[in-house]
Amino acid sequence: MGLTIHLFFGYYTLNAQPWAAHGNILVIPQNPHYLQYTDGTPFFWLGDTGWEMLHRLDRQGIVEYLFDRSEKGYNVIQTVLISEFIHSYKVTNFYNDSIFINENPGKPFVTSGNDPVNAVEYDYWDHVDFAVEMARKMGLYLALLPTWGEWVTPRVGEALFNTPQQAYNYGWFLGNRYKNVPNIIWMLGGDRLPDERDIGIALWRAMAEGITDGVTGEKEQDSKADYSATLMTWHSYQSSSNWFSNDEWIDLNTWGSYHGEINNPRSYEAALKDWNLSNPKPTLNSEPCYEKGSINYGLDDNGYFTSADVRIAAYWSVFSGAAGITYGANGIWQFAIKGDDNIASSRSSDWKEALNMKGCIHLTYLKKLMLSRPLKGFVPDSSMLVSGQGDRASHVAVLASQSSAFIYIPTGNKIRVKLGKLSGEKIRASWFNPRTGEYTYIGEFENTGEKDFEVPAISEKLAWLRTGRGCDWVLVLTSDV
User: Fold this and answer.
1) Burial of 160 (0-12, 13-18, 19+ CB in 10 A)
2) What is the rounded CA–CA span in Å between residue 102 and residue 82?
3) Integer Cα distance of 253 and 266 in angstroms
4) Architecture (CATH level 2) of domain 3-376
5) I need a surface site. Which of 24, 147, 151, 341 has the fewest CB within 10 A?
6) From the centroid of its chain, how far is CA 313?
7) Can you tell me the distance from the alpha carbon of 40 to that of 20, in angstroms, rounded to the nearest whole number?
8) How many CB atoms sit inside 10 A of residue 104's CB?
9) Is the pLDDT of residue 231 over 90?
10) What mean pLDDT comes out for the span 230-238?
11) Dihedral angle at the C-alpha atoms of 430, 473, 41, 401, nearest 10 degrees?
């Protein structure tokens, strides 16, 4: 719990600011698949999808949302400056402020002053500044998308960015404005693939260069920049490694398993693909299925994603080598409001009601589990599994280091594990409940041969129920006992 501070709308918590305590976020030199701070403290990305925060929320709403996520243990908020859906039909934010003058990305609508009581002074960019500052006070990073992909590589509308110079100049404006802000991670992209337009890749590269030059004080579009000054990635359905793997501006790869189906194998396949690259970077599932979001976008009455789907996507991704995971709730990414025509159907009628969904809480236990052991030693290692590997929904993911192993069993199937792969003479085993964060001790045994493990009952009341959807468990093995 952090220190309590007073803001004009009430009492909120000032949480520790990790960049001040530990330095910048860097790739771990000994294992380039993971992130850490300058002082060596591990960083596990636990993000939340707040795409429309800057457009839909007023100042108090921003504080309430960021406070909630900070208190729950989240550390990154993904949000966008030029949104896709909102900007398509309403080019102003909650206060009816425009981003640009006449929709010209070369002319940000910036006024003199920033007094929130004065509507003439308080502009869109002042509102962004406020969100950035509130996130800083609450110890949160903002993964800030300069623009949704629709406005660079459009599918249904007209592009806002049509030349590399436009993209560079807009990027420079952003980088310069936030050059002294310690809690911004730049996340370019947004659903659209960069090569859906012949100049798309060039536009994104120019924007990345502009942002970095704005941060460092340079202003020369020459395809060169000091990218050590920024932490940057690119977000879409496919991993950024497909196009930008060798680009200097990409520090980590992101992708999304998205919303098409339950038990989506891309949750582990994409992570493993990036893990096995010849020049690997940290990778993460930055858009898995949204809790209470429609399965396959509402087609054919497919139903809605549940907390079980959230856990499956997260554990499959992380135990397949992802450096973190981003949570999403359908009522929150769009900040649904009662009585409003929401962007996408939501089983939660108001974003505040969606703040405490089960999946959101469950993923905080995953973060604690991952930080209970040194991140830098982990490697996906399915070779530990002798039998019990299931198909599709029952896929078992294994993450191991020299002295510990995490084995995710999504549907309770019985498994056999090869011992002796961890160091030490003894193995201590426990069940970790991903729904509660609690451990159940199994026992200690010799670190040789093979051993069968069968998950416990889901509860005392349902003592017979051990298998099927929602009966997921993590087998935790440690040898440093």
Assistant:
1) buried
2) 14
3) 15
4) Alpha-Beta Barrel (3.20)
5) 341
6) 12
7) 14
8) 11
9) yes
10) 97
11) 70
CA angle 128, 137, 33 (to 5 degrees): 85
Per-residue pLDDT of 190-213, as tens digits, reads 999 999 999 999 999 999 999 999
DSSP collapsed to 3 states, the chain: CCEEEEECCEEEEECCCHHHHHCCEEECCCCCCCEEECCCCEECEEEEECCCHHHHCCHHHHHHHHHHHHHHCCCEEEEECCCCHHHHHCCECCCCCECEECCEEEEECCCCCCCCCCCCCCCHHHHHHHHHHHHHHCCCEEEEECCCHHHCCCCCCCCCCCCHHHHHHHHHHHHHHCCCCCCEEEEEECCCCHHHCCCHHHHHHHHHHHHHHHHHCCCCCCCCCCHHHCCEEEECCCCCHHHHCCCCCCCCEEECCCCCCCCCCHHHHHHHHHHCCCCCCCEEECCCCCECCEHHHHHHHCCECCHHHHHHHHHHHHCCCCCEEEECEHHHHCCCCCCCCCCCCCCCCCCCCCCCCHHHHHHHHHHHHHCCCCHHHCEECHHHEEECCCCHHHCCEEEECCCEEEEEECCCCCEEEECCCCCCCEEEEEEECCCCCCEEEEEEEECCCEEEECCCCCCCCCCCCCCCCCCCEEEEEECCC
- Sheet bearing 35-37, strands edge to edge: 25-27, 35-37, 42-43
- Distance, in Å, from the CA atom of 386 to the CA atom of 211, rounded to the nearest integer, reads 49
Rg (CA), the chain: 23
Domain ranges of the chain: 3-376, 381-478
Q: Which is more confidently placed, 4 or 96?
A: 96
Residue 481: pLDDT band with limits 50, 70, 90: low
pTM, two decimal places: 0.95
Return the percentage of the chain with pLDDT > 90, whole number.
87
Q: The domain 381-478: what is its CATH number?
A: 2.60.40
Pairing of strands 35-37, 76-80: unpaired
Question: Which of 446, 415, 449, 420 has its CA nearest to residue 431?
Answer: 415
Tokens of 425: 């003479």
- For residues 371-396, one letter each, b for 16 or more C-beta atoms within 10 angstroms of the residue's C-beta and e for the rest, the string is eebbbbebebebebbeebeeeeebbb
8 has pLDDT over 70: no
Residue 296: partners with Cβ closer than 8 Å, 6 or more residues away:
259, 260, 261, 302
Query: Beta strand 253-255 with 404-409: parallel, antiparallel or unpaired?
Result: unpaired
